[in-house]
Amino acid sequence: MAKGQPPARDGRDDIAPEPEFVQLLNPEGERVEHPEYSVDFSDEEYRDLYRDLVIVRKLDKEATALQRQGELAIWASLLGQEAAQVGSGRALRPQDMAFPTYREHGVLYCRGIDPIMPLSLFRGVDYGGWDPAKYKFNMYTIVIGAQTLHATGYAMGINLDGRIGGGNGSGDDEAVIAYFGDGASSQGDVNEAFVWAGVFHAPVVFFCQNNQYAISEPLERQTRVPLYQRAAGFGFPGVRVDGNDVLATYAVTRAAMDNARHGQGPTLIEAYTYRMGAHTTSDDPTRYRIASEVESWQAKDPILRVHRFLTNQGLADDAFFSSVEEQAAEVATHLRERVLSMPEPDPMSVFDNAYPNGSPLIDEERERFVAYQASFAEGAH
Amino acid sequence: MRPVSRVKEFNLPDLGEGLTEGEILKWLVAAGDLITLNQPIVEVETAKAAVEIPAKWAGRVVTIFHQEGETIDVGTPIIAIDTQPDAGPLPDSGPSGHPEPSAASLAAVEVAPAEGAVEPGLIGGPAPGGRTAVLVGYGPKTVTAKRRPRVQPAAQSSPQAQAAPAVPQQPAPVIPAVRPAPTAPVSPAAPVSPAAPVSPAAPVSPAGLAPKGAGVLAKPPVRKLAKDLGVDLAALVGTGPQGSITRDDVQAAVAAPAASNGRPVVTGDREQRIPVKGVRKLTAENMVSSAFTAPHVTEFLTVDVTRSMRALERIKALPDWQDVRVSPLLLVAKAVLAAIRRYPMVNSSWDGDHIVVKDYVNLGIAAATERGLVVPNIKDAGALSLRELADAMTGLVRTARAGRTSPSDMSGGTFTITNVGVFGVDTGTPILPPGEAAILAFGSVRDMPWVHKGKIKIRQVTTLGLSFDHRIIDGELGSMFLRDLGAFLEDPEAALLAWG
Predict the structure, then answer these.
(1) Can you tell me the ipTM of this complex?
(2) Rounded Cα gap, residues A98 and A133, in angstroms
(3) How far apart are CA A275 and CA A297, in angstroms?
(4) What is the CATH number of the domain that holds A269?
(5) Interface of A with B in 33-62 (CB under 8 A)
(6) B48 vs A364: CB contact, 8 Å cut-off?
(7) Which residue from B15, B17, B163 is facing A68, i.e. has the nearest CB?
């Protein structure tokens, strides 16, 4: 191959099959050692991680079914990315602030938030608003990559408030995590966030779930170098982690967040994973990727390897696994019931929060809408 | 709605964003099957994706309403499920056991007037290409919108109708009135009218110094519209909120000619109808007659005319050529005359039973004039010296431009040159003047990179286009003639000496 020649693009087999990344649990469920990263979990904590993974997948599956049944307008599935989300979500400390995309259902769950919270957005009965300060979890951001700027600004605020590097008393120092994807890495917003975070040494961790696809565009349309290597150009470290390995994801995220809170500045984490499902329920991935590729990733399933690990280590038995399944089914059923019983929003509420003191235009529109609603034979739906 | 029954009908949901229909690809269950919640029951393909639909209820499949391959509107029942299969057999009759979709569910999808339809360009609204704008993907085909049934507003009787916004069906005629100057003293008894004479004693208002319309409330697009239509905003009374001037106000002002400021009102269908006559009519008849009578062939040759251009410069420098117009066209004309001497068949015409070869050349020069295309010809141009030819061409074009070309000047042409190069174009495929066997298009002369004596040099280059009547002239003759024209223009001195 001539110097400077791009890698062949006609088949994904030409790309290195197993990239260099931090891995602590391989697909066979075997613990592997890494010189820089490790975890020290109790047996109970290993089982809890498994429980999180299973419940998060079950909730996601239920939401997808609800969309297919006409109960949600749209759903962005996290299938395949459970380890990246549970590992990083569990690595956050209570005082840390998370800035999600619209796919971080697993992180939300690990923050201890009721998974029903974002479903009203996807059902279309509200705008998905909640108090980010209360949950230490910003609102789902639909605009691709915009949240990386919000996170960087928030982290710069932590610097200015001195809640970092022991300035706020021991143990209370804060850090921020910004979630985004491989597609967002091409956005101007994300690159600007990198510049600001690097220059101002902001305590923010950029957590990129590289799930290989920006809707239908494959990774080779986003970058010529591994994404984590981009951090070097912005002046902070980057690290690639096996995004299907919940232990490695936890260890790498915990270390990066602690570095940030100790005043060591930002880190870019590339969690190398795979979106097993569609981009959203409006998408059909069979139109742009081949079945054999999906099958190769099924062998690297994030839950299967923890299941094997727990079994091999004698940390869990069939009774435990079936109890987790039951618990997940209960959580999913509870979620379904609450989605179906969500009250229809008052159509007039759309006008309520537009202006604090009203506006002639809004008043006029409200009047018209009242008349429009009244014009239906069955009354307001 | 029907009372809650143990048999529930599942309506095809909107599986994407704003989809209106889907095709049943494959049923995964059959009537009589026991199914569980979220068990895949059917594959449906929409404009966006082929997806499996999981069962919304556990139970026993009672009826499948639509077969594979059918395209179903969103909202239409596709399957009925008995949600209490253990509660004994279903009653034979009654609405719940009926195999057809219930009337209520059908009513819900009845077509209603598309009032309140989403505007074009908005999400859910029509997009270019007859599709519906969506957030992700290609978007569904546009079909008739299905709406909830509407109350027929009873005129003036319903309080709802009273509350409805007063949106006139047609723009109400608004007669613009002149705004009273804010500081002008106006007697309450004296009606303000456009014709009200201003008293010379009235104090000069400082507002009069402000730009026109500056103190008027109007949104920028309305101001733009007013400017485009020549409407003085200050002369209007606004009907919008806080007395602001609306788009309708401006348009009404335009529609009311009495209030306009004397500019012509923009009317008509923006098309102009020009009678076909005179030169245009003659040109049209000639071109049609020629194009559909004589089988045209056109050939092109690109030549280096640097030497010709230098020769022209030398001619211009001669003392007795000082007051003569010398152009490249002159040398082209000379080249044509020289080449015709070598190939007289080019200077001929088709006469049905005979080919008439002429011993004289009446050389036509196409000229663009205000009246249109005029092609006067230089009689017996072959007998003229170069100087006489130059004088004749100058006079001919001047006469044509002045519109004084006589019919006899334009008749009897035997060969024509059209100098499209003066318009800056490279060449064209000219159409023969009726009765002539060939016509030459002379393109513009450009500085171009050109291989000259084995090196790339900047040379003056032009393209010749020769059309000829294939009834008379075959490719060989046409090519040789065109090649000679090129040879002359590449080296005029040698050609004159060799062919003279």
Answers:
(1) 0.80
(2) 10
(3) 9
(4) 3.40.50.970
(5) 61-62
(6) no
(7) B15
Do A123 and A246 share a structural domain? yes
Helix axes of B328-342 and B306-317: crossing angle, nearest 10 degrees: 110
Clarify whether residues A371 and A277 are in a common domain: no
- Taking contacts as CB-CB distances below 8 angstroms, the residues of chain A near B15 are 67-68, 281-282
Q: Which of B105, B136, B138 to mutate to test the interface with A (most CBs of A within 10 A)?
A: B136
Asked, for residue A106, whether it belongs to a domain, the answer is yes
Rounded Cα distance between B354 and B201, Å, is 94
Model confidence at B146, in pLDDT bands (50, 70, 90)?
low
Query: Do residue A244 and residue A377 come from a single domain?
Result: no
Superfamily for the B214-259 domain: E3-binding domain (4.10.320.10)
Is pLDDT above 90 for B119?
no
Q: Which of B27-31, B288-292, B336-340 has the lowest mean pLDDT?
A: B288-292
CA distance A378 to chain B (A): 8
The closest alpha carbon to A196, from A238, A152, A240, belongs to: A152
Question: A361 CB contacts (<8 Å, ≥6 apart)?
Answer: B241
Confidence class for position B112, pLDDT limits 50, 70, 90? very low
Listed range (A249-258, A357-366, B210-219, B327-336) with the worst mean pLDDT: B210-219
CA–CA dist A220, A224 (Å, integer): 7
pLDDT at B117 over 80: no
What is the span of the domain harbouring residue A355?
346-381
Contact flag B15-A281 (C-beta cutoff 8 Å): yes
Residue ranges per domain, chain B? 7-107, 214-259, 278-499
Is the pLDDT at B181 greater than 60? The verdict is no
> How high is the pLDDT of residue B253?
86
Please tell me whether residues A316 and A377 are part of one structural domain. no
Tell me, rounded to whole angstroms, the distance of Cα B411 from its chain centroid: 40
pLDDT tens figures, B455-467: 999 999 999 999 9
Give per-residue pLDDT as tens, B70-95: 999 999 999 999 999 988 888 754 44
What 3-state DSSP class applies to A244?
coil
List chain A residues with CB under 8 Å of B113.
none
Where residue A273 falls (left for φ over 0; alpha for ψ -120 to 50; beta otherwise) is beta
Q: Judge whether A380 lies within some domain.
A: yes
Residues A135, A191 within the same domain? yes
**Least CB–CB distance from B165: residue in A61, A282, A367:** A367
Check whether residue A170 and residue A244 sit in a common domain.
Answer: yes
DSSP state of A22: B
Q: CB contact, 8 Å: A280 with chain B?
A: yes
Selected catalytic residue, list B296, B354, B452, B470: B470
Q: Is A368 on the interface with B (CB under 8 A)?
A: yes
pLDDT at residue A247, as a whole number: 98
In this complex, the residue of A284, A367, A375 whose CB is nearest that of residue B151 is A375
Q: Which of A111, A123, A254, A279 is catalytic?
A: A279
Q: Does A370 touch chain B (CB under 8 A)?
A: yes
Domain B7-107 annotated CATH 2.40.50.100:
yes
Q: Which of A288, A355, A368, A372 is catalytic?
A: A288
B192-222 pLDDT, tens digit per residue, is 444 444 444 444 444 444 445 567 889 999 9
**DSSP-derived secondary structure for A73-86:** S-----TT-HHHHH
Residues A272 and A377 in one domain: no
> Selecting from 3.40.50.720, 3.30.559.10, 3.30.43.10, 3.40.50.970, what CATH number does the domain B278-499 have?
3.30.559.10
* B470 counts as catalytic: yes
- Tell me which chain B residues have a C-beta less than 8 angstroms from the C-beta of A69: 10, 13, 53-54, 56
The residue of chain B with its CA nearest to that of A142 is B135
DSSP A154-218: HHHHHHHHT-STTTTSTT----EEEEEETTGGGSHHHHHHHHHHHHHT--EEEEEEE-SEETTEE
